[in-house]
Design a protein that fits this description.
Helix content: 40-55%
Mean pLDDT: 78
Strand order of the largest sheet: 1-2
Low-confidence stretches: 1-6, 42-110, 124-139, 157-179, 230-269, 308-314, 678-700, 823-839
Strand content: under 5%
Number of strands: 10
Number of helices: 57
Distance between the termini: 133 Å
Structural class: mainly alpha
């Protein structure tokens, strides 16, 4: 009862300080009496009596109680608390008795059997006990008994040890500890004097040598630690001080007679007063009367000298606040922000990535949550491009290299639900990207909105050999993570853990949504989707918990995500369906996906779904559209047709209308596919990997008559939308929503395309003829409207391809790619770096709206060419369209391949080019330049568009003839190239043959072919489909094939034709369209053409080949000053290796070919690197014999081989040796002869003081030369002046003429040269 009266209610959340003080006063009043607990030490009082049988019986009762036996209490016994009895009998306080003292004199003889145990002095026994561990008061540091003894010795207290004497009575032996201490100190003084004497007798060099020996005996890190140790570090150490003797540099131990030799130093803590605290102390606060300086020193402001102690660093480690913002080190941050911590730099606010890593591994759950939340914010901002102007390195790549995947995976296995939620948030920031998801939602209104981009790691390539397959199978998850994060997660039981979190932990709504988003991101691969579908119970949990058939109405602030439909779950189902037809059939048959869609779509009560009604309806309709494009779920349309038409007419939500129209558009294609197959029922088979059974999912046919009537309702909405665009877009273009216009016009385009293919015409209120008549009127009004001009201006301003300075793209990694959603231009001010880097959502809709208009024109062109052709010509010739085309064709930027949404713009421009080919337009030149510039810009998502571009536009003879001039018409080579365009087209289209399966898949899904579509995943490669120098690809392919082919094997039979076609196209581009290839460096062009000489068949000897090679050389020589072979060439490791092989091939197969010789001389020009000239004049000197060119045959100036003059002694020595040996002569090798004489002569008579021995040797050799003409040229040469006209370069005969007349010689040597010559004679 007394304990109940002492009970005080504990404080609760929300109570103020006054309430806490009231509780404190109440507790103190009730505790004013006797304490509630009393500590009784064993040994303080009398010893307990021996255990009696009565006590033993009580112990037995306790044992019986613990074993579950209930004994009957005896009469008269009071009820006893068993737990209290056990505690009282077993809990014994630890004694303070320590080990015996060792410095005790030997005991005398004992008369008793055993000696009496020694006792500690009463001063130690009476010392106050240490406070209990759970005491809230400030506890002094616990001292050992030895330390307590040492403290008593310093105070002069004698330690008395009682031992038995020789007699029966006890005698007391007093042991003076002070005398022992004096003896030790005296011994130390003697040792110190002895050391000082030895050191004084040593020289300085000997002392240094001994110090080095001592330093070698210890670890260097330990020595550095001792040297850099600060005072007051709190670590037990021995203090060292230097001696006063200047001749004794060695440190000695200082003596101290008052203190022990080895002392324990406490931390030197700056005192802190109550005024330094950020709060005011109150006398009423319990146990706050004593300040703990060691803990409160962190509350003091930092001194300025401490802040600036390290000085200004060139590169600072980025520090982040809790929201992920970069903390500016130059701006002061208040201590109240909570960003200062006990790190290596306590004066710096914020956390580095290393410090966050440490906190994530903390055992404290709060620190884990804080670090994970901060990392999540940093990742989210990094992936949105927030740090591109602020930091030098990529945050995402840095974190992935630091194994953040492992760190987050370990955090996902924590027991704390808060830590798991924070880990899921961090995973969501790492894997998902909000901008990509929103941008894909904007694409859903177009005809390609059903596609899901397949993201594959950049460096992942399927193994080709058996060894590579074995190595790939033996890879551990750490190795897999380096090349592909998603594949590595599949090996780390990532999916089962997510299922466990959803099923067992059952987190809040936000965590469930993030997990579903993560699953959607992982569905960007067919392999991943298959493994996910085979994860035990994962799909069951998702469909039963987050896509339920029956559920209670969703409350507005409901934080529970289970048992209610989630938008992310339906998006996850749509991504699963997009991964393959078999997966879609499985979801319908086993998980009732179609029934769940019908349940949500047919609902007429929006309040049933709460705030997610609109988004859930949109996702349900889009998932249904994906199923319809497989030919699945069409039978439900027949049942829900009335409600869908009604909803289309009365719905006010734009997003729901757009999704519904997209569904109806896909139904048109499904009905057309049914009619084309004579209404056959198609059956899709799939097999269950768990049971091995096969199942069938029948897809009933959808008749065209059941969907043709939709045009009546949709067409009227389309006309209203067009009129609204013409009236409102000019004024509200920045906020105008174009999605409904795009979807409605796409439906009209699809209807016109499929209606003309139907064998039986179905009578509708709106006929194709009426549509055509209205389209003519609308397009005429549209092309002259200000709204259309404003639309084109906005397209040009928001274009990805037109921004020559590049774009700010979101951060990603090769092992974790992203779509790189549309960013804002990079020419923004750096002060705006903290803002969002994404453009307005309207940017994608601008491109899609123009593309839909172009496709609508193409679909109506076949119905009435005479009325539509003028409209097409007006559209192409529109001033803004022409400006847009010219800007794109002039832009050589091709680094947008990583941006998935650049493919939308490429697709638009390809449609524009195809429209220009179909109509007689006077703007063929601009269209052709545009088509040629689009070839290297097309990405993997534009594979089918690239094939159409090459087959219909790029190699169109009409396009090339539009560039012919009077001079080019008379050129026989150009005319022959134009006539060969069909063959050239086949050569370059064959480059896409290895991608035949991928090409067919791309064409099927873009044309919405329900029969042949196997999946809706569109592969998004992070490289361009064709490189910038794509015209040279056949040459490089033949060169690679020739290098890999064995000596005995025969070359392909079409090698000559392939090489000829490639050279013809390059010649056409260099002659007619030089601006198209200006982005390719001149030395890269020369290197590519040089590869054609290295083919084994000697095809360069053919007359046609020689004319093409000569024409290409002439075009390259027009930019001779831009040639620099020291620059890297794409595809070549080193040009020197290619040139070495080129010289070997020239020596073996050239037979003095003049064209071959011209290409040999290009790297020998004086402006090029010296290594190429040294390679010819020294290592490949025999090559010089076959260069029969005369100066008149050169296609570049002779001065390029003469100036600047050669200064390399090795090359000059090689030139002189080749001249004196007769390897090159004036009559056989005029060009090389003149170049060698020129450089040797100038080098010999140069008086710059360098290479004097070489010059003297050259003068002697020239003076002793037996060939008189060569001797005169070497000594009396002055300069070379070419006279006469040029000759045909293809003429292999030596037409040098009288070259002696071009070599100008001195009639009398200058005095300086005479003196040099006399010195060697």
């Amino acid at each position: 009862m007394e304990s109940n009266q002492m009970f005080v209610r504990r404080p609760k959340i929300g109570e103020a300080d006054d309430d806490l003080l009231a509780f404190q006063e109440e507790f103190l009043k009730q505790a004013s009496g006797a304490p509630s607990a009393k500590v009784s030490r064993v040994g303080d009082g009398p010893q307990p009596a021996p255990v009696t049988p009565e006590v033993s019986s009580q112990t037995d009762e306790v044992k019986d109680k613990l074993m579950g036996v209930t004994p009957q209490p005896e009469q008269g016994d009071q009820p006893m608390d068993v737990s209290t009895q056990v505690m009282q009998s077993q809990v014994v306080e630890k004694s303070n008795v320590s080990a015996f003292l060792r410095s005790v004199s030997p005991p005398s003889k004992f008369t008793q059997g055993f000696p009496v145990a020694p006792r500690l002095p009463p001063e130690l026994l009476s010392a106050p006990a240490d406070p209990l561990p759970d005491s809230k008061a400030a506890r002094p540091k616990k001292r050992s008994l030895f330390m307590q003894q040492m403290m008593l010795k310093n105070k002069g207290v004698k330690t008395v040890i009682n031992t038995p004497s020789a007699s029966t009575s006890l005698s007391t032996i007093e042991h003076q500890t002070v005398s022992t201490t004096n003896e030790l100190q005296q011994m130390m003084v003697e040792i110190s004097k002895e050391n000082e004497e030895k050191i004084s007798n040593m020289s300085h060099e000997e002392i240094i040598e001994q110090q080095k020996k001592l330093a070698a005996m210890f670890d260097t890190s330990l020595l550095e630690k001792l040297k850099n140790r600060k005072k007051g570090s709190g670590i037990s150490s021995v203090s060292f001080e230097p001696t006063t003797d200047s001749n004794n540099p060695a440190p000695v131990i200082t003596e101290n007679s008052e203190k022990p030799v080895a002392t324990i130093q406490k931390d030197i803590v700056d005192p802190i007063s109550s005024s330094d605290l950020p709060f005011k102390l109150d006398d009423k606060w319990l146990h706050m009367d004593q300040l703990e300086h060691e803990k409160l020193r962190w509350l003091k402001p930092l001194d300025e000298h401490k802040k600036n102690k390290k000085g200004i660093k060139e590169k600072l480690s980025a520090r982040f606040d809790f929201t992920g913002e970069v903390v500016n080190p130059e701006e002061p941050v208040g201590a109240a922000s909570g960003l200062h911590h006990h790190g290596d730099e306590p004066e710096a606010a914020g956390y580095t990535l290393e410090e966050l890593y440490i906190l994530v591994r903390s055992l404290n759950a709060a620190q884990k949550v804080l670090a994970l939340a901060t990392l999540s914010n940093v990742l989210r901002k990094a992936k949105s491009g927030h740090y591109l102007y602020l930091l030098n390195n990529s945050i995402v790549n840095s974190l992935l290299q630091a194994d953040i995947v492992l760190l987050l995976r370990y955090a996902l296995d924590e027991k704390s639900e808060l830590v798991v939620a924070a880990a899921v948030n961090a995973w969501h920031s790492l894997l998902c990207q909000q901008q990509d998801t929103k941008s894909l939602e904007l694409l859903s209104c177009s005809m390609t909105g059903h596609l899901v981009p397949e993201l594959v790691a950049v460096d992942v390539s399927p193994p080709t050999t058996e060894e590579e397959i074995i190595e790939r199978e033996e890879e551990q998850y750490l190795e897999v993570l380096k090349r592909d994060v998603i594949s590595g997660l599949l090996l780390m039981d990532f999916l089962p853990r997510l299922r466990y979190i959803l099923e067992v932990i059952r987190p809040q709504l936000v965590v469930c949504s993030q997990i579903l988003d993560i699953l959607c991101r992982m569905m960007t691969s067919s392999e991943t989707s298959y493994k996910l579908s085979r994860t035990p119970r994962l799909l069951n949990v998702v469909f039963e918990e987050f896509l339920p058939m029956s559920f209670t109405p969703v409350a507005e602030n409901d934080e529970c995500g289970h048992g209610k439909p989630l938008v992310e779950a339906m998006r996850f189902a749509r991504c699963l369906c997009a991964s393959g037809r078999t997966m879609a059939v499985d979801l319908i048959a086993r998980h009732g996906l179609m029934e769940r869609i019908v349940r949500y779509v047919s609902s007429t009560d929006p309040s049933e779904f709460g705030i997610v009604y609109s988004k859930l309806m949109v996702e349900s309709l889009l998932t249904w559209r994906t199923l319809v494009l497989y030919g699945l779920g069409c039978e439900h349309y027949i049942i829900l047709r009335p409600s869908l038409i009604t909803r289309l007419q009365v719905e006010t939500d734009t997003s729901i209308i757009v999704s519904l129209v997209c569904l109806l558009t896909s139904l048109l294609g499904a009905a057309d596919a049914t009619a084309s197959t004579d209404k056959r029922k198609k059956t899709v088979h799939f097999s269950d990997s768990t049971t091995g059974e096969s199942a069938e999912a029948p897809s009933p046919a959808l008749d065209w008559t059941q969907v043709s009537g939709l045009i009546d309702s949709v067409y009227s909405m389309a006309m209203k939308s067009v009129q609204n665009f013409l009236e409102s877009y000019s004024e509200h273009h920045s906020t105008y929503d174009l999605s409904i216009l795009i979807s409605l016009l796409d439906f009209v385009h699809s209807y016109l395309t499929h209606a003309r293919l139907q064998p039986v015409h179905v009578e509708c209120f709106v006929t194709p003829q009426a549509i055509l008549s209205d389209m003519v009127k609308i397009f005429r009004q549209l092309l002259t409207s200000t709204a259309f001009s404003k639309l084109l201006i906005n397209i040009r301003q928001s274009s990805i391809l037109l921004n020559e300075s590049g774009y700010l793209t979101s951060e990603s990694s090769n092992s974790l790619p992203s779509l790189h959603s549309l960013p804002k231009p990079a020419n923004i001010d750096k002060a705006e770096a903290g803002e969002s880097t994404q453009l307005k959502p309207q940017a994608i809709h601008l491109l899609l709206s123009l593309q839909t208009l172009i496709r609508l024109l193409r679909s109506t062109l076949s119905l009435s060419p005479t009325e539509i052709q003028p409209l097409c010509v007006d559209l192409i010739g529109h001033n803004e369209v022409m400006t847009y085309m010219r800007r794109v064709s002039q832009t050589q930027q091709t680094n947008n391949s990583t941006n998935y949404f650049a493919s939308v713009e490429c697709s638009l421009l390809v449609d524009l080019c195809q429209l220009g080919v179909a109509v007689p337009t006077p703007h063929l030149k601009e269209l052709h330049r545009l088509s040629l510039s689009l070839v290297p810009k097309c990405t993997g998502a534009n594979l089918s568009e690239l094939h159409d571009l090459l087959s219909r536009v790029v190699f169109s003879p009409i396009m090339f003839r539009s560039h012919l001039t009077e001079s080019s018409r008379s050129d026989h080579v150009t005319q022959e190239c134009v006539m060969s365009l069909p063959s050239i087209s086949n050569t370059y289209i064959s480059l896409l043959l290895p991608l035949g399966e991928q090409l067919q898949h791309s064409r099927n899904i873009l044309s919405r072919n329900t029969e042949k579509t196997s999946k809706m995943l569109l592969r998004h490669s992070h490289t361009d489909m064709l490189p910038l120098d794509w015209p040279y690809l056949p040459i490089m392919h033949l060169y690679q094939t020739s290098s890999d082919r064995s000596v005995d094997s025969q070359p392909p039979p079409d090698t000559c034709q392939l090489l000829k076609n490639s050279l013809q196209l390059v010649n056409l581009l260099e002659t007619l369209l030089p601006d198209v290839t200006k982005a390719i460096s001149v030395h890269a062009k020369v290197a590519r053409v040089m590869c054609s000489f290295l083919l084994d068949d000697g095809l360069f000897h053919e007359p046609d080949m020689q004319r093409l090679l000569t024409s290409l050389l002439l075009s390259c020589c027009c930019h001779i000053d831009r040639i620099d072979f020291s620059q890297p060439v794409p595809g070549l490791q080193a040009f020197a290796d290619l040139y070495m092989a080129f010289l070997d091939h020239f020596e073996a197969t050239s037979f003095g070919s003049s064209v071959f010789s011209q290409y040999v001389l290009l790297p020998m020009m004086q402006q090029q690197s010296v290594e190429y000239r040294k390679l010819v004049w020294t290592e490949h000197a025999l090559t010089l014999r076959s260069v029969f060119l005369s100066p008149n045959q050169l296609m570049f100036p002779m001065e390029k081989l003469l100036y600047p003059e050669e200064v390399n002694a090795a090359i000059i020595t090689g030139m002189s040796a080749n001249l004196l040996s007769g390897l090159i002569t004036l009559t056989r090798n005029p060009v090389l002869y003149v170049a060698a004489v020129h450089h040797v002569n100038r080098f010999m008579f140069t008086t710059d003081g360098r290479d004097a021995d070489v010059k003297l040797s050259l003068l002697k050799s020239a003076h002793l030369c037996t060939v008189e003409s060569l001797k005169n040229h070497l000594i009396f040469y002055k300069e070379y002046k070419m006279s006469g006209s040029s000759v045909d370069v293809n003429d292999d005969t030596n037409s040098s003429g009288d070259i002696n007349a071009d070599i100008v010689c001195y009639t009398k040597l200058p005095i300086q040269r005479c003196n040099l010559l006399k010195s060697v004679t």
